[in-house]
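Predict structure. Input: Transposase, 51 residues.
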Amino acid sequence: MAKGDIVDELMETANCLLHDLVIVMMDAEFDSGAAKNSAERHGTHHFNKKS
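Output follows.
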């Protein structure tokens, strides 16, 4: 499964549970355009921890 798809599924679930999610932290492995775009489509800000 692509990282963007994983983030999309996680964001859908998180938004159902936490109705006002504002920011998410992603592992450095998810530092990709698809993952970031998926988070942004769900209306959240994101940051990645760089190793």
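The longest helix spans residues 3-17.
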